[in-house]
Amino acid sequence: MNLQNLLILGATGTIGINTLDVVARHPDRFQVHGLVAGRNIELLFAQACVHRPKVLIICDSNALNQWHASGLNAKLREQIGYIPEIGGEDALASLCQSEQIDTVVAAIVGSAGLKPTLSALQAGKRVLLANKESLVLAGRFMIQASLSSGATILPVDSEHNAIYQCLPANYDLSRAAEFGIERLVLTASGGPFRNKSVAELSQVSPAQAIAHPNWVMGRKISVDSATMANKGLELIEALWLFGLPAGQLSVLVHPQSIVHSLVEYKDGSMLAQLGCPDMRTPIAHVLGLPDRIESGSPRLNLAALGKLDFEEPDLSRFPMLKLAFDVLAKPDTMAPVFNAANEMAVDLFLNEKIAYMDIVKLTQMSLSRFASTCVANLDDAFELDREVRAFAVECAKKC
Ligand SMILES: NC(=O)c1ccc[n+]([C@@H]2O[C@H](COP(=O)([O-])OP(=O)(O)OC[C@H]3O[C@@H](n4cnc5c(N)ncnc54)[C@H](OP(=O)(O)O)[C@@H]3O)[C@@H](O)[C@H]2O)c1
Question: What is 4-155's CATH topology?
Answer without folding.
Answer: Rossmann fold (3.40.50)
